Structure formats: C-alpha cells, structure tokens
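May I ask for a sample protein chain and its fold as tokens?
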Amino acid sequence: MTYRLAASAEMLFLDLPFEERVRRIDDLGFEVEIWNWTTKDVGALARTGATFSSMTGYVTGTLADPDGAAELLRTAEESLLAAEQLDCPRLNVHGTGLDAQGLPVVATETVTPAMWLTAARTLERLAALGERAGRVFTLENLNTAVDHPGAPFARAADTIALVEAVGSPHLRLNLDLYHAQIGEGNLIQLVERALPLVGEIQVADVPGRCEPGTGEIHYPAVAAALDRLGYTGVVALEGWASGDPVEALDRFRRAFDLTR
C-alpha cells in the first residue's frame, strides 16, 4: 500500500495500562495516535520507541471567540513541546474544546460571520506556530448528530473552507470518514475534493464506531480511491474494537490491503 496505517491507543486494548497499549499497537506494525497528552507520562511514551502519528494539539480553548482563541494558542504551544518529545508530526484541533464525553465546552447553535473570521485568524496563527516548530496542525471534522452535538465548524465542508482560507502547509485537514459518513456521506467524492488539503485520514465504521467491516461503509472502495489518487499519508483507525482488538486491527489492515 502507498499509505501508512495507524491506530488510536485511546480506543484499543482498554484493559491494559496506556504505555502497554502503545507497545501492543507498535508491535503489530501500526503507528500510534493519542489524545490528551496532559494525562500521560510523555517521557515514558517516548521511551516505548513507537512511531507517533498524531496527538491532540491543544488542551483548552476555542477557535471563534477572542478569549478562547488566546487559550487555544497558549495550550497549542505547550502541546508542541510534548510533540517534540514524541517526535509527533501532526497535532489535532477542533472547532471548540471537547469534554470527557466529547461534548463541546462551548456549544454553538449558529455560527456567525464574525465567528468564521475569528476562526480563520486563529488558525492562521496556529499554522504560524506549527511552521516555527516544524509541525503540522490538523483541523478535524466531527459529527453533531451522534457524538458531538453543538460543535461548531463540524462538517467536512466547514473544515475544508477554513483550511483553504488559511492556505498554509502547516494547517491541514484531519479528514475523519466516520464523522463524515454520519454528517455528509458521499465519501469517495469527499476524498477526491479534500485530498489536496489532507494531513491524515481517520476511519471507523458506521454505526458503532468500530473497525471496518462492522457497519455500512465499504472501506475497500475508499482504499482503492486513495490509491488511485496517489495518497501517501496516514490512514488511522480511530474506533473501538467490536471484539478482540488484535482481530479488529487485522480487519482494519485487510480493508486497506490493496493486494487483496
């Protein structure tokens, strides 16, 4: 395959200590993704020798109001220091901070033109931080129907518009196809539209947010499209295991195996 595979240590091997989860995913040949680095021993994670693909790029804050933006940028600088320890190339952000249940810290029913402008300016400053540090921030689309009601700038169309407006190689899309299937669908056309802006792609099946093959998305067709379009980045499983996590990762790998 032309792209690389990663998996989230936040959602697999949940019976193990976090560092052991990282080791198991690495031993199985996948790059590793993590969320909130402040709850981890970053030094211990670095010593596992795993290749880290992505991590959360802020701790608190929001994109679209001045006080929240200042907080997001402040904690993004702290996140860059953790990313340096882990040699993690991509740091992920959302339209607003999410709590432990995935709900927006600041829920938004209507996104105003002023909020769009503030979000774009915040992302320009975030991209400048990434450029100075030699890292890339990625803006993730979310779904508001199931997992993240009230999250602003949630649709893939919203994140595409913002990343295009900033126009920096240090701000890319984290194109989450699980969220996109719930919110917008038409995944092959979405991949074709978004791929020039993509920093990485995340996947899980719908419904249930488990590994490919457990729901309605035909991920081998997505894999074929990525190959046809020449994608060489990361495809990451950000989903739960429907059963044994080793089997779940094997199903994920087989769904994206272009030789089958």
